[in-house]
Amino acid sequence: MSKQKKVPTRNIYVKLLINLIYNAMIDKIPVQVIGCLRPGIITVIAFPGVGMLDGGLLMELPTEIIPVELRMPNSEFIVVCNRESGEFTQVLSKDSSK
């Protein structure tokens, strides 16, 4: 009998994404808006399409840093993260990030 290879679970991918963000190895994070689930907070999926079942990682961003035209559900944009502080400093449209 051959041993089956263990397939990493979603939790491993989520932990990896969290580590990449919090260790500031990534300064531009692609996101897709889910919606405004709490006042003053926009809930987004970071790294949409990475992982299982459309993947990604849920994140909450303050409404004031996101331009009005990008707050609609399914809007996609880039969030710029400060490498030193880990804070989100700027939002770029998906087209301007190239």
Please give a structural write-up:
13% of the residues lie in helices and 36% in strands. The longest helix has 13 residues, at 10-22. It has a single domain (27-97), classed as Beta Barrel (OB fold (Dihydrolipoamide Acetyltransferase, E2P)), CATH 2.40.50. A hairpin with a 6-residue loop joins strand 4 and strand 5. The radius of gyration is 15 Å and the shape is globular. The chain has one helix spanning 10-22, and strands at residues 28-38, 41-46, 57-62, 76-81, 88-93. It contains one helix and five strands, in the order αβββββ. With 98 residues, it is mainly beta. Strands 3-2-1-4-5 form a five-stranded antiparallel beta sheet. The N and C termini lie far apart (50 Å).
Task: Please summarize what this structure is.
This protein is mainly beta. It contains one helix and five strands.
Give the SSE layout:
Layout: H1 10-22, E1 28-38, E2 41-46, E3 57-62, E4 76-81, E5 88-93
Antiparallel strand pairs: 1-2, 1-4, 2-3, 4-5
Give the tags.
single chain; 5 strands; mainly beta; 98 residues; five-stranded antiparallel beta sheet; OB fold (Dihydrolipoamide Acetyltransferase, E2P); 1 helix
The CATH class assignment is Mainly Beta
Tally of strands: 5
Largest sheet: 5 strands, antiparallel
What's the end-to-end separation, in Å? 50 Å
Fraction of residues in helix: 10-25%
Number of helices: 1
Residue windows where pLDDT falls under 50 for at least 5 positions: none
CATH architecture: Beta Barrel
Rg: 15 Å
Order of helices and strands: HEEEEE
**Estimated structural class:** mainly beta
What is the CATH T-level topology?
A: OB fold (Dihydrolipoamide Acetyltransferase, E2P)
**Overall mean pLDDT score?**
76
Name the assembly state: single chain
Strand content: 35-45%
